[in-house]
Specification:
heterodimer, A: 230 residues, alpha/beta, 5-stranded parallel beta sheet, 5-stranded antiparallel beta sheet, 7 helices, 15 strands, B: 226 residues, two-stranded antiparallel sheet
Chain lengths: 230, 226
């Protein structure tokens, strides 16, 4: 993975560069003490990962995140433990406190690598976090995280979220093709469920929220293969 | 920090001033006789007196007020004798006074250890001494301007800016394992950020920190491998 380092402190940049040298799959290609120069660079070069400081004079790490389109993966490296929540709102991969220890650094970059590999395995759409559905001639955005399951209703599919049900004129097959397979699995010809929302599985049924969903015999093996089980 | 150096030998006076130049934020005044020492102490608030035992050929151990006094002599037996007379040996300095002696005195005054702990840097370096030296060089280059900014902002009385600048220096201190200083700076940053202290109190607490920050520079210079 090609990475860049953005930090106004020389010591921090040197330390991160040294840490990158310790990891086979990382290549530190540039360092910047000023995020604005990094933005120019990102517009020209394809970069996989950015190590980003928050407190920098004139232009902060958050200013950077707000300004860049198609931000690569970002690991925040800061001495301030007060901005964790804000940082994750920008969908950063990790938030590490300086000085960055080697084990913590390796954990963070391994996480990024694993997520990228998983995304590649699961196809180009797997990094998307939402889908638009047509409801009464209106395109409504649904975050994957909000979908509990989908149920076939004749020519329609009913999408269940914690607060609402959406009826969409579509087929289950169409949904099965569109949804990221790392998040959703068809458990029955009439049901697709969000793997992350499964509470438990007992015999041939799944509990999601307070709903019991049947599992067909033919889909059970595929379902169990997708789950992280011990 | 104000030091009164009582010494009648011009060469020793010059050497001492030269050493003190390496620790900015410490001011030194010279008195050349016992009487001059007493006069100066009456009108100035010194933090420490460093004085020769023999002034103008006469032995004198007089110590005015409650100011800590360090005694100097070029003769080891003279100092040993004083040590037997229940003067703590840490207050006895053999001439010529060295930078390390002054650093010890300063550390006693600030009560902040500036001994680095290189465990984090060693973990990064994996035995790469060049890398370690590189980090030390960056520290030596960058810390003076950071100290200067802290002093300027403290003079302006801007607590928020002071907190930001103290925060900025903390990462460096943590990196080099100046644990004692990290504790002191963190506390002051917290107080400054929360407006807990009057500026005068803040400045009082800042003074030993500034001196210790200068000291870190001296300490790290000696740790560079050439």
């Amino acid at each position: 993975m090609k990475c860049i380092i953005i930090d106004d402190e020389k010591i921090a940049r040197a330390a991160l560069k040294k840490l990158c040298e310790k990891v086979d799959f990382l290549e530190s290609v540039a360092e910047f003490n000023n995020p604005l120069e990094a933005i120019d660079f990102l517009n020209r070069e394809e970069i996989d990962l950015v190590f980003l400081d928050i407190h920098m004079p004139d232009f902060s790490g958050f200013d950077f995140l707000s300004s860049v389109k198609n931000v690569p993966e970002v690991i925040i490296t800061t001495s301030d433990d007060n901005f964790g929540v804000q940082a994750f709102e920008y969908d950063v991969s990790d938030y590490i406190l300086k000085p960055v220890s080697t084990p913590r650094f390796i954990k963070a970059v391994n996480k990024v690598r694993d997520e990228r590999m998983s995304a590649e395995r699961n196809g180009p759409d797997s990094k998307e976090k939402h889908i638009f559905i047509n409801v009464n001639s209106r395109l409504v955005r649904l975050n994957y995280d909000d979908i509990l399951f989908m149920e076939a209703r004749g020519d329609y599919v009913q999408i269940q979220t914690p607060k609402k049900k959406h009826l969409v004129h579509a087929t289950m097959k169409r949904f099965a093709e569109k949804l990221p397979p790392n998040r959703f699995v068809q458990v029955h010809r009439s049901y697709i469920v969000n793997i992350n929302k499964i509470v438990d599985i007992e015999d041939n049924s799944i509990l999601i929220a307070e709903e019991i969903i049947p599992i067909s015999r033919s889909n059970k093996e595929e379902l169990l293969n997708r789950l992280n089980t011990i | 920090m104000q030091i009164l150096y009582v010494e009648d030998d011009k060469f020793d006076q010059l050497a001492f001033k030269r050493i003190l130049k390496k620790i900015p934020s410490i001011s030194v005044e010279i008195a050349t006789s016992h009487n001059e020492m007493r006069e100066k102490v009456e009108v100035n608030a010194y933090d420490i007196i460093i004085r020769d035992i023999y002034l103008n050929g006469a032995k004198n151990l007089d110590t005015p007020g409650n100011i800590p006094v360090y005694f100097t002599s070029g003769s080891k037996p003279v100092l040993e004798q004083l040590s037997k007379k229940s003067i703590d040996s840490k207050f006895l300095l053999l001439k010529p006074i060295r930078l390390q002696d002054v650093q010890k005195i300063v550390t006693d005054y600030t009560n902040i250890s500036t001994e680095p702990d290189f465990s984090q840097i060693d973990e990064w370096a994996d035995g790469d001494e060049h890398f370690k030296n590189e980090l030390i060089t960056y520290y030596l280059d960058e810390i003076p301007s950071q100290i200067q900014k802290i002093e300027e902002v403290a003079l302006e009385g801007d607590l928020k800016k002071l907190a930001d600048l103290l925060h900025a220096v903390l990462t460096k201190l943590r990196t080099f394992g100046f644990h004692d200083l990290v504790n002191k700076v963190s506390k002051l940053e917290y107080n400054a950020r929360n407006n807990d202290l009057a500026m005068s109190v803040c400045n009082q607490r800042l003074e030993p920190i500034i001196i210790a920050l200068h000291q870190t520079r001296l300490t790290l210079r000696t740790k560079r491998i050439t």
